[in-house]
Structure formats: C-alpha cells, structure tokens
Design brief:
By secondary structure, the protein is of the alpha/beta class. The protein folds into 5 domains: 141 residues, no CATH class; 37 residues; 64 residues, no CATH class; 63 residues, no CATH class; 166 residues, Ribonuclease H-like superfamily/Ribonuclease H (Nucleotidyltransferase, domain 5), CATH 3.30.420. Helix content is 50%, strand content 9%. The protein is built from 25 helices and 12 strands. Strands 10-9-8-11-12 form a 5-stranded mixed sheet.
C-alpha cells in the first residue's frame, strides 16, 4: 500500500500535466506547428505529438509539399545514424509516408529481425512457460505470440502456415482498415475537445477518470488501490486496462477514451432486414421448418468460404421477434414451431416463484452427523405414484438401519394429506428416532413447517434434480416396485396390506447391514438406548 504522501504527489502531478496539455491545445488552436508550440511551452516534441495522437486530432498538412534535394539528403544521412524512418521523419518534420516511400525506393527496409525473439519465445514455451508469460518475457504482443505458438510466420505481404499454405493480404482491405481519416483539428473550434471531456453517465468511466488511472498506475499503484481511490469496482479498473491498453506503448487515457466511445456506436442495420442471399436463405429454411440454430450451423457447411453468409441463431430470433414488421414478420414467424408473434421470457431458477410459503432449509445446512449414519433417527422420504400420478404412497427410510415405513394416502396426495399422514406415522416413534427428515422439493411437502411443529422433526430439502442426496430412499422405492408396480392404482391398497409389505421388507437381510435385517438392527438400537 502506498503512503498518503505518495498519493498526494501523484494527484498533483496529474493536475499539472492536465494544465500543460490544455495550454498546449489552446496554443495550437491559435496557429503554429506541433513542434513550434512545444518549443514555446517548453514541452518535449515527443510528448506534444503523443498528446495530439491520444486526442485523435491532427493539424492540417501542407498539400503536395515539395522537398528539396538537400532535405532529402539530410533524411538519408540521419537514417543511416538512427535506422528508424519514423523517428527521422518526426525529427525533421517531414511526412512519414513520404519518408518511407524514399527509403523503400532506395531499397532500405528498417524492419526488425525477430528471429532471436522467436527462438527465445519457442524455447520458453518448450520448458512449460505459459504463452502470456513467454510473450511478456520476450516483449511481443499476444497476437504475434499466438501465431508463433501455432507455427505461423509473417512476411510483408501475408502469412505462411505450418502446412505450407500461404495467405496473402488483400491490399485494398488493408488500406481500408489502416487509412481511416482522422478528424482534422479545425482552427478556432473547441467543440471536439469539449465533447471529449464531457462525461456521459456515472456508470461509464470518463476522460478525467482515465487520466487518473494512467497517473496512479504510472506511480505503481495496484488495481485494488486505484479502485479504492476512485470508488470504483476493481473489476472495472481491470477490464479498462485489459481492453484499452496498447501492447507496445501501454495505457493511454485519450486513446482508451476514444476506443471506448467507438465501441459504443452501433450504427449497423439488422442483418436480416436487408434483402439479399443471407435473408433469402433464412426465409427459405424457416419455410422448411428448420430451427434458427439449424440454419445458423448449416450456413457454415454450405458456404465455408463466404463470410457474408453467417448469422447467429440469436440474430434470427431477433429478426423474427424484434426487428421484423408487417409482411416480413408474418413471413418469418409463421413457420416457427411455436408460432408465437412475441417472444416469451423464461425466468431462471433464481427468479421463479417459490412453491412454499415457508422458506425451505437446504440439505447443505443439515447436521454433519446425518451423513455419517452413526446416530439413528434421521429419515429420508418421498412418494411413489400410481397411474397418471392420481394415487400415491408415502415412503420413509431410516438412514442408519434402513428401516422402512409406509404412509397410507387413500384419496389424494396434496400437501395437507401428506402432512397428516406423516404426522400420524412419525408421532408413534420414540423421541430418539425423531431427529430430521430429508425430502425432495415436491409441492406435497409445502406444509413442512406444520409437520415440524407437530413432530419436532426438522425437514431439509435436497437440491433440484439430485435424487442421490436421498440414496437410501431411492433404493427402497425401487424395492417397493416389486409390490406396487408402476401403472397401478395405489389407492386400492389398504393400511393392513401396507403393514404386511413393511414387515416383509424390513425382515430382508441387507448386505450393507452385514446381512442383518433392518428390523433386527432397529431392535438392537432400541435395546441399547
């Protein structure tokens, strides 16, 4: 943790730099080049050019500037010393593209030889170092590290893959991506800077906060310290640094702010609203009653080389339920299996209305002694149902002895009937055999609070779709199906018949009880109690 004095000096340093930056832009607005304004204010030309680049603005350049032979020879003289075209062009105030054109025409290419870096990276990977750590150790960006990991080699016109395949870059596409015109900084126009400084919403980081992140990070503050100082979540600071940090120059607040603003803009029109082969393919397959997922995945197989023929299943759903109108909506929705005209929201398990008025107690809160099966009196319960779930029998199994009791439910198996049946059976047990009852989350146990009040037996509920948490009861229900087959009417069995089945089942020797029967094990426990 940094000392309070260091924190204070970091903030003062930030304010000082911000004032200098604003003075630089104000002076630049009155005229003059970046280099002359920087010299007038005592600012490093490199810092001045960086500020202008971060702001995403540029000064007007002279059109069709003519360079003298003396200027050109001076360029080559300095290039021989520095071996860096951009640095020489910046020092002389020449157009960088023109300087590269001179160098290439003279057969001079100043690209770095990365053979040693590649060999070192592959050596580190061979010894088990992670890709990210090896990339950081060899000072390369993550995209280059990924290519080297896959055996891909780059050259000026494309990429060579390990299988010998050569992919050449489309020069038009490259130029379209890299030659995006920047907004020209107009004289006497402060609107661009005002818009850049203006906060959007407290939810989003603004430019001042990004400047603060930059300065605090430069002073060695950790992510959590920065978040605590700015009253932000640490994950917000972590995401900001991971998304908007440039691989070579680090985190730049103006560039980060510009990138974040660019990502927010979504001017694109919905794919399937525009006529064309993509929309025709989707409409035709919907007419054949294909699902959106089938359509989306089939496109990859039918058009492996056509990237324009790609659409996700969610985009198809959006086109059907959100964006489409009129004839298009009828055309798209009519073939869907559900035939709905509006999308139905499905609530997650955490947002569903509870079926119990009284809150359930999870099995996770059950005492640990229940799992050990050393102490008797802990029961597992469930229902076995008959034809069309119209009749049922309640089953109870003691975990330690596997002793079974059946609950007669002659008419129905709603919550009140099950509650009364369980109370009548469990009240006849001794106090040391009435500790806990574990049940699934069936609605028949919604009266569990009343059952606990009457019997002093605490009820715990299993997790959804987890029958193994009541393993003894599930196994016993399987044994009971020998007496009560599936698809039969269970209401026809009398309490006397259930008692006979209980006695026969409890008289069976069990392997898990060392071939003793549940009745024998229960009698032994009662005698020693």
């Amino acid at each position: 943790m940094n000392s309070p004095r260091k924190r204070k000096s970091g903030i003062e340093n930030k304010q000082y730099k911000s004032a200098e930056r604003k003075a630089f832009f104000r002076r630049l607005d009155k005229g003059g080049t970046v280099r002359s304004v920087a010299a007038e204010l005592g600012i490093s030309p490199h810092t001045a050019y960086r500020w202008r680049h971060e702001a995403g603005v540029s000064t007007k350049r002279a059109v069709n500037r003519e360079y003298s032979a003396k200027e050109k020879s001076e360029f080559f003289r300095l290039l021989q010393i520095h071996q860096n075209v951009s640095a020489v062009a910046r020092e002389l105030g020449f157009v960088r593209v023109t300087c590269y054109k001179w160098a290439h025409a003279a057969g001079i290419f100043t690209g770095r030889d990365v053979s040693a870096q590649r060999d070192e990276f592959l050596r580190l990977r061979k010894f088990g170092m992670s890709r990210a750590e090896a990339a950081q150790r060899t000072n390369i960006d993550k995209r280059t590290a990924q290519d080297w990991d896959k055996g891909i080699r780059q050259f000026s016109g494309g990429r060579i893959y390990p299988d010998g395949r050569v992919v050449r870059y489309d020069q038009k596409a490259v130029l379209a991506n890299v030659k995006v015109p920047r907004r020209v900084y107009e004289r006497n126009d402060q609107e661009g800077l005002e818009l850049l400084d203006r906060p959007i919403h407290p939810r989003y980081l603004n430019l001042q906060e990004r400047e603060q992140i930059h300065d605090l990070k430069a002073h060695g503050w950790s992510i959590r310290d920065i978040a605590r100082e700015m009253v932000r979540s640490p994950s917000t600071i972590s995401r900001e640094l991971s998304r908007n940090t440039q691989s070579k120059v680090g985190y730049l607040p103006y560039a980060a702010h510009r990138d974040a603003a660019t990502r927010r803009k979504r001017p694109k029109e919905a794919k399937l609203l525009m006529p064309g082969p993509l929309r025709d393919f989707v409409v035709d397959r919907l007419a054949l009653r294909w699902s959106p997922e089938q359509i989306s995945q089939r496109m990859v197989k039918d058009f492996p080389d056509d990237e324009d023929m790609r659409v996700s299943s969610e985009t198809i759903h959006q086109a059907v339920y959100v964006h489409s109108r009129g004839a298009l909506k009828r055309q798209l929705t009519s073939p869907l299996r559900q035939g709905r005209l509006a999308r139905r929201t499905r609530r997650g398990t955490g947002h569903r209305t509870s079926r119990f008025v009284e809150p359930m107690v999870s099995i996770a809160n059950r005492p640990s002694e229940v799992d050990l099966r050393y102490v008797p009196g802990h029961w597992e319960g469930d229902l076995i149902t008959g034809t069309l779930n119209k009749s049922a029998i309640g089953t109870l199994v003691e975990r330690t002895t596997r002793y079974t009791m059946l609950v007669h439910l002659p008419h129905d198996h709603n919550a009140e009937t099950v509650r009364d049946g369980l109370i009548s059976v469990m009240q006849g047990l001794p106090g040391n055999l009435r500790n806990t009852l574990t049940w699934d989350q069936g609605a028949e146990m919604s009266e569990h609070a009343a059952f606990t009040t009457a019997t002093d037996i605490k009820v715990y509920f299993c997790d959804p779709a987890s029958p193994w948490q009541r393993g003894s009861n599930e196994n016993t229900n399987g044994l009971l199906r020998q007496y009560f087959p599936k698809g039969t009417d269970l209401s026809k069995y009398s309490p006397d018949h259930l008692e006979l089945v209980t006695q026969e089942l409890n008289g069976r020797p069990r392997k898990t009880l060392n071939w003793e029967s549940p009745a024998e094990r229960l009698c032994a426990l009662l005698e020693t109690a």
